[in-house]
Design goal:
Strand content: 15-25%
Distance between the termini: 83 Å
Largest sheet: 7 strands, mixed
Strand order of the largest sheet: 15-18-19-14-13-20-21
Bound molecules: NADP nicotinamide-adenine-dinucleotide phosphate
Number of helices: 16
Helix content: 25-40%
Structural class: alpha/beta
Radius of gyration: 25 Å
Number of strands: 23
Length: 508
């Protein structure tokens, strides 16, 4: 990929057009691998939010959009999928230089998942039960009854910086598939690809259906979460901010879905195939420098395998190459910012001070050619107990905690001893044992002998404080529709409307 050294400019995207923010202010977006400013982006505020919500509200009043037939909507979603593929190179480049995700991951996995998501939604929408007919009731009199699923209205999406482009599509695709309109506030570290996606998608949807307002959580996120004309809020981010969003949304009783943090347990059983389980567990925790909500950050290892497992993991981890994410040979890129790097380092300090043993990594490192970047060595701690801070709090960096267990009940008990419940995993050659463990793990997704494998036709979301609601799968369409029961009486003469006699004693 060629590197563009020019600083780009991105206005807001409202009502199908690029517009400056009301104040004309901008903020800098930096490449986390180099520290270089790569873009100046419009700094929105409440006035910009109001304009975007008004555009989305007006677009929602257009019945051609809200009442589009499922087969026409499917065609539109397929077209968006093709447009993503046609723009893949630019999208991937912008995502790599702003989020620090490696080009090997972004240009293959992320782009494919996004294109497939719109195609999957296109397939689901055709058979989705937008209208269901209930059986004619025998009592008190015949009627026709329908359950309709209708779009919710103006949806606000607030998204994080770790996989900004993919996560934005998890909200855009079901919102458009069901006839809603959307205003997106991307994370301030990574707004570029969401803006670009909006421009691409606006080629095939009416103006105002998709809008993006960039700016801070305080100045853009809060006005969106509080806005009386926003009917639904879909938030992905930290549990802490999620709590605030839920509280703000409660003032206007907004339909709310939350995809929040995780501290996912990964249980290695004594019969696990270590040739798979060791690289698999590292794939589960070090992909994207550990900045994935579903990362398997707590590895539970049986006493008898402990030393062998630790030795194998350390050997494999030392082979990982840190580098510029634009380089095809880079395995692990930077973390998003200096602030995130410092947070991760302070967690590493806390692990040491609580008595865990550092067996690998643990330091910030300089990468040649990326001296202004924020790199941290993939880090492994042993002798971690589940009550330590590094085992309970989400670090969101490349840090693995290895925790011993005595028997499987002990492992499950410790695995579930967390406020989170996003993902979990188990490695074993015994499929019956695997399902039994999967059943007992309190998490929204459980991987058996694998990690990170999400499907666009399967729901994703958290138990406990990892969230409310599900994204992807047909369940994501449920999350962007509301139900209406329509009753049409088939009893046309008054004397047979016996139920009116509940009020009138002598109606006939
Ligand atoms: P974050 O700090 O919670 O921010 C997420 C989004 O919320 C950003 O757009 C942020 O804007 C905005 N925001 C911040 N304060 C706000 C406020 N008071 N009102 C409204 N919006 C506000 O999370 P992050 O650091 O970007 O992302 C990492 C977190 O996301 C981790 O906890 C991770 O587990 C979670 N995550 C969860 C999933 C999932 O599917 N469950 C997926 C990915 C990430 P600014 O950028 O302007 O601050």
């Amino acid at each position: 990929m060629t590197v563009n050294l020019e600083v780009m400019n991105f206005p807001l995207f409202i009502n199908g057009q690029w517009v400056p923010s009301v104040t004309g202010d901008t903020f800098d977006v930096k490449n986390p691998a180099t520290g270089d400013v790569i873009a100046k982006v419009a700094k929105g505020n409440e006035a910009d939010v109001n304009a975007a919500v008004q555009a989305a509200k007006t677009a929602f009043e257009n019945e051609e959009w809200t009442n589009m037939k499922p087969k026409d909507r499917a065609q539109l979603l397929n077209t968006i999928s093709h447009l993503i593929v046609a723009n893949a190179e630019e999208l991937a480049y912008l995502e790599v230089i702003s989020s620090g995700g490696t080009v090997r991951r972004v240009s293959s996995s992320d782009i494919l998942q996004m294109a497939d998501l719109f195609q999957t939604m296109a397939k689901i929408v055709v058979d989705y039960p937008f209208s269901e007919t209930l059986p004619i009731p025998p009592f008190p009199g015949p009627s026709q009854n329908f359950v309709w699923r209708e779009p919710i209205g103006v949806c606000a999406a607030i998204t994080p910086w770790n996989m900004p482009m993919l996560i934005a599509t998890w909200k855009i695709a079901p919102a458009l598939a069901t006839g809603n309109t959307i205003v997106i506030k991307p994370a301030s570290f990574t707004p570029l690809t969401t803006l670009k996606l909006a421009e691409i998608i606006s080629q095939v949807v009416p103006p105002g259906v998709i809008n993006v307002v960039t700016g801070s959580g305080k100045e853009v996120g809060e006005p969106l979460a509080n806005h009386p004309d926003v009917d639904k809020i879909a938030f992905t981010g930290s549990t802490e901010v999620g709590r605030n969003i839920m509280s703000m949304a409660s003032h206007t009783i907004k339909n709310t879905t939350l995809e929040l943090g995780g501290k996912s347990p990964n249980i290695l059983l004594d019969d696990a195939n270590l040739d798979l389980a060791l690289p698999g567990s590292l794939f589960g925790v070090f992909l994207h420098s550990g900045q994935l909500c579903e990362s398997g950050t707590r590895l539970f290892v049986p006493d008898q395998l402990h030393d062998q497992v630790v030795e194998g993991l350390v050997t494999l981890t030392k082979q990982l190459k840190l580098g510029n994410p634009l380089d095809q040979t880079t395995d692990v890129g930077p973390v998003i910012s200096k602030q995130q790097k410092d947070t991760i380092l302070s967690y590493i300090e806390s692990g040491l001070s609580e008595g865990a043993t550092l067996v690998c990594g643990g330091k910030a490192v300089a990468v040649e050619g990326c001296e202004g970047g924020h790199f941290i060595e993939p880090t492994i701690f042993t002798n971690v107990t589940n009550d330590m801070k590094i085992a309970q709090e989400e670090i969101f960096g490349p840090v693995l905690s290895i925790i011993r267990y005595s028997d499987i009940n002990d492992a499950i008990k410790q695995a579930n001893d967390t406020i989170y419940g996003l993902a979990a995993g188990v490695w074993t050659e015994d499929v019956n044992k695997a399902y039994k463990v999967a059943k007992q793990l309190r998490a929204g997704v459980v991987w058996i002998n694998d990690w990170h494998m999400l499907r666009n036709d399967a729901p994703f979301g958290g138990y406990k404080q990892s969230g409310i609601g599900r994204e992807m799968g047909k369940q994501s369409l449920d999350a962007y529709t509301q139900l209406k029961h329509v009753h049409s009486s088939m009893v046309s003469d008054l004397k047979n409307r016996s139920w009116y006699q509940i009020l009138f004693s002598n109606l006939n």
